[in-house]
Amino acid sequence: MDNSSPTHHPPVTVQRAASVLLLRETTGGLEVFIQHRAMTMDFAAGVIVYPGGRVDQQDTAASGEVPDAVAAEHARRWARTSLGDLGPEQARFASAVVAAAARREVREETGAELRTSQLHPWANWVTPVGNPKRFDTFFYVAALEPDQQPRHQTTEATDSQWIRPEELFRACDAGKVRLMSPTRATLQAVVRHSSLAEVLGQRAEIVPVRPLLPSSPTSGQRTS
């Protein structure tokens, strides 16, 4: 019999983060803007990601730029996430802060300046227990306009590009690139719709994907 005690890891603070699926329609179909994350990064090294990052203190001040109507609608969509646990007033404020973070990250990493009205809540994923870094990530979709041209300008990635989702999935299945589960799942949810207008027309509450509690007899993630 193994009498050894289970290993106990110190608790890891879950940090809020925002990530944005920048989308456009072309004659060849829908495309998404992706980044090839650098191998030197201490989180998600070498994988494909969308522009985004953790919520910062500066986003609190910038939250005032998010119209009340937008914050209220986002709070409604995020009602089943950790933001909804804050209560109505704080949920609206927190939703504005996360939206401000999404705009800032897109601007810093791609040079594209999004309007808050372009940000549509899409998904919420929480990093499972046991990871050295944990994030409560709020994913948005945003349709870019012709004068909004993102470019590669972040040192956190080696390259950035527009790509058709089907091409990205094929490259991943062939082992040419790596996609984390949230990245693939959020994009798969996009391509289930027949058009970009249909994607942007979604208004249902977001169902978060959260890690199972440590006391659960199984491990992994569940949809709650």
Cα shape:
globular
Class computed from helices, strands and strand pairing = alpha+beta
Biggest sheet: strands, sense, closure? Answer: 7 strands, mixed
Distance between the termini: 37 Å
Give the helices and strands as they follow along the chain: EEEEHHHEEEHHHEE
Blueprint of the fold:
Elements: E1 14-26, E2 29-37, E3 48-49, E4 52-54, H1 57-62, H2 68-77, H3 88-110, E5 120-126, E6 134-143, E7 157-163, H4 165-173, H5 181-191, H6 196-200, E8 209-211, E9 221-223
Parallel strand pairs: 1-6
Antiparallel strand pairs: 1-2, 1-4, 2-3, 2-7, 5-6, 8-9
Helix pairs in contact: 2-3
Q: Could you please describe the fold and organization of this structure?
A:
This protein is α+β, with helices and mostly antiparallel strands and 224 residues long. The chain contains six helices and nine strands. Strands 1, 2, 3, 4, 5, 6 and 7 form a seven-stranded mixed beta sheet that branches. A two-stranded antiparallel ribbon has the order 8-9. The longest helix is centred in the middle third of the chain and has 23 residues.
Describe, in short, the structure shown.
With 224 residues, the chain is of the alpha+beta class.
Features:
224 residues; alpha+beta; seven-stranded mixed sheet; 6 helices; 29% helix; disordered N terminus
